[in-house]
Amino acid sequence: MIDHMQRRDLPEGWDSALPIFPADAKGMAKRDSSGKVLNAIAEKMQWRQPAS
User: Fold this and answer.
1) Which letter does DSSP use for residue 47 in this model?
2) For residue 42, what pLDDT is reported?
């Protein structure tokens, strides 16, 4: 995990959980959609999670 950080690499499959937002006439607030994206990315960033 430290290797990824030093090389500024992303772990494989980091984007597999990114949400897809369908077109919607009402739309979604940017803060809501960006929060969902950041949370999905954080789940894949193992070096950010406490060791179990």
Assistant:
1) G
2) 85
pLDDT digits (tens, 9 = 90+) for 1-52: 677 677 877 778 889 989 999 998 888 899 999 999 999 988 887 665 555 5
String of DSSP letters for 1-30 = -HHHHHHTPPPTTTTTT-------SS---H
Q: Which residues contact residue 31 at a Cβ distance below 8 angstroms, ignoring those fewer than 6 apart?
A: none
- Tell me the C-alpha distance between 4 and 46, whole Å: 10
Contacts 24+ apart (CB under 8 A), 20-26: none
Q: Report the distance separating Cα 29 and Cα 52, nearest Å.
A: 35
What residues does each domain of the chain span? 2-48
